[in-house]
Design a protein that fits this description.
170 residues, 18% strand, alpha/beta, two-stranded antiparallel ribbon, 29% helix
């Protein structure tokens, strides 16, 4: 199950479309499970790592994936080659991920891009790494062409995520 918790208010129709798209992408249940409050002391732009560490505990089973959705800015990540914008962050082969909609103009009309960001981060929680296929949702998000892609996995990533889902305990 993919459980989505919102840190800010989102249109219920947008959340319904997102959960439907994630269900289609992963073939596991997806639902909006409620709203949570961002931890005190966090200021925008949020440090995504600290945010994931300090968010309140939510009800989820061991094999559930938990996606926190915010409309606030996440601080850019520092890479060896410079800074990269942060559209989301997740723990590889773990349970938690966060995605921001701040970079999406008119998010209500662009659920596809939000879904692509969410697919990318949820797939990281299943242990997938970045992909070299620019059509795949696992292509690096900070590339200029990422926003133009579809909500799909390449054959390799699709097979990898399916294998991870099949081997879950519940």
């Amino acid at each position: 199950m993919i459980r989505i918790f919102t840190l800010d208010e989102f249109d219920p129709a947008l959340l319904k479309a997102l959960t439907k798209s994630l269900y289609t992408a992963f073939g596991v249940g997806s639902e909006h499970s409620g709203a949570v409050t961002a931890p005190h002391g966090q200021q925008e732009p949020y440090d995504a790592n600290k945010l994931l560490e300090t968010l309140p505990k939510v009800h989820a089973l061991k094999d559930d994936k938990v996606l926190f959705l915010t409309s606030r800015k996440l601080a850019p990540r520092k890479l060896a080659s410079g800074e990269a914008p942060t559209f989301g962050l997740s723990r590889y082969s773990a349970q938690l991920a966060v995605v921001t909609a701040v970079h999406i103009k008119n998010v209500a009309d662009n659920v596809k891009l939000l879904t692509r960001y969410a697919m990318h981060e949820v797939a990281h929680t299943y242990g997938l790494h970045h992909c070299l296929d620019p059509r795949c949702s696992m292509y690096p998000q900070w590339t200029p062409s990422y926003a133009n892609g579809d909500c799909i996995f390449c054959t390799y990533c699709r097979d990898s995520v399916d294998a991870k889902i099949r081997t879950t305990k519940s």
